[in-house]
Write the structure tokens for this entry.
Amino acid sequence: MFLPMPNRIARREFLKSASLAAGALGVAAHAQSRGTPTTPKPGDVRISAAKYQPVADYPIQPKRYSEVTLKDQFWSPKVLTNADVTIPFEVEKRGEGARGLNGGVLEAAMLSLATRPNASLQAQVDARVRAIAEAAPAGNGGFEIAATWFKITGRRELLDNSIKAADALYENFRVNSPPFSGGERDAMNCVQLYRVTHDRKHLDLAKHYLDIRGLGNSVNRSRHNQSYKPVLEQTEAVGHAVNSVTLMVSMADVGMLTGIKDYFVAAQRMWTDAVERKMYVIGGVGTTGNEGFGDPYSLPNISAYAETCAVLMFITLNHRLFMATGDGKYIDVMERGMYNNAIDGVSSSGNRFFYVNRLASAGDGRDTRWDRASLECCPPNLVRFLASMPGYIYAQDARGDIYVNLYVSSETTFTVGGKPLALSVASEMPWGGASTITVTKADDQRGTLKLRIPGWARNQPAPGGLYSYAAAASRPVTVTVNGKAVVLTADRLGYVAIDRIWKSGDVVRLEFPMDTKRVVADRRVKDTRARVAIERGPMVYCAEGPEVQGGKVSDLIVDAKSAFTPSAGQETLTGTTVIHTDAGSLTNPAAPRRKVTLIPYYLWANRGAGEMSVWFSTEDYAIGDVGPAGGFIFYVNPNYARDGWRYLEAAPFDQSAGAKWGCFRRMITGARGTAIGTGKQNTADMLAACAESGGAAALCASFTLNGVGGWFLPSRDELSLLYRNLKATGSVEFGTQGTADNFTYWASSQNTADMAAHVDFADLGRVHGDDKDFPRRVRAIRTV
């Protein structure tokens, strides 16, 4: 019997620590290259057909989360709030639904109970485990939970059920070879089962889910679900961001565990595309309204998506790639996502959430945190991530070398050369740059500590050239052992390796420069032209309404004279480092500069609705720039002091492809202005005199973009300017290629009782007049 997976793939997955695989080898040592991949025919793809020698797990293994004791004041409170507030809150919500306690919330509860016992929660988990174990096994959706339960408790009831389900799935693929549309989540589930059972059939299942994806007979082939071509031929991060990153994780898993290099290399190609062309400065991915990756260098701020689920999966991916290669660049990306995009997804109180993590907000209420949603996918992933967060701090490879990846005050113990070696880390991170690592052991023992030197401490905010610092750090990284300076530089993988005979009480001290830095983006990112983001250590900062005089954030402009001075936060920001600066006004350059306090990005939206921005203008808007609402600037007003506005911004898309002007054969009072600056009044006149719904003026007046209102139908000259400065220059595409006629836009300038002005975008922007009842295109504008 074929056990189909749901068409909607569950958006969740986190790395689970596994025991160190004895003799595991890295990609370069054991991977088999099959040469250039060729498109397989559906009939040629059979489960278990490939020959390979499986390995138990990745060559580098994280220190298990339950074996790390947090001692810090940043992550420890968040993990405790997660255990005491967020997980119970999510469990309660599951009790309100038909499915009951399940998925990521159930797994998070299991993980949390191992380090923070809770009798009530334990009883709920035990009851749910019994219910699942008594049910007939079906599908692969429970494999991950079964593996987690087994690793935590050693109990097999869920594992045995999952093995039965896997046997049924395997047999169906072997006998019937049914076509299938998904694969990324299914493959990951099977990999998690394999990492516990080490049964090759379970790894074959994972590989097969990838192999049948994108075949000619695949169901629902599309770029959105990454099935537009076979996975080994894919080179881009495309489509639904969570599923795309999950696919990369599954391919990395299968490539590493089978030793077939092509899968891992394909995952790296897609990761490179995401990091070097499609990643937000907060470490998140996914830029479009369909929860997906957009075009290269398309990184809108006020309409950003950067879904919480996506960054959590991206954290998993980067950790996996590190586990395969030992390359610190993956931890750099992981750290950026953890400290910014990920923890922004949950409120300080632990019971309010974000799916969407925008980089700018109009303060209209769209970005108010919520407690319940119709589709609950991100909160379960968040609680699981926070429950297992200590597992991202340390790692160890097959040689016994110890990696310190994140500098978090904590304690743990490793086995080196068959003997225990304990580490105690005291760190100022993320607010200060000093960290000390104290070694405790019974006997002198040779070993290697690999200390990650973060990219941000080496003047590289992220791999590739998507982001860079406007100025280099003023101080170098320093390392001392027992008070004596050690002259070491980071290797090509971003680590300083200290190999010595360790004695109990040895102390390593690192000091990272914690300069406040201006980040600039690649010039191809239009939304950040002439703008900077502010960073200090791993933290990205933002301006939010409560810390800006008048609450107006989108109007801020900083320049070379603007100093950025860190200090301890006060009141609701106690325990954080804030940054003080001053800023001018984009729309009123003569206005006095205002004092502004920047807060860590992850803390915004904890005090109600208000404007927010991560990127700050350093120059006045130029023609073609992305405006504060997400449209396009097409006019700079030299008479702004007199008129009270400085820029005209056009909506980035039409409000209608065919709407009437209205009031045909009626001469309305007003709406006769043709000059720049008259469109707003024309629109008001039209609305006052013409009650027809669906007309051009009404469409504009009711339009909001990213929470911003105040739009109107442009006058004749405003519309002509829009054509000349955006369409004719090619800076904005209006879709008129090959269009010979009927690509004209209404202006708000009335000619007669019968006619109004319009501009033909397909005919060199010529101005015409036509009957008011003729349907024409509508493009709204606004003053800034």
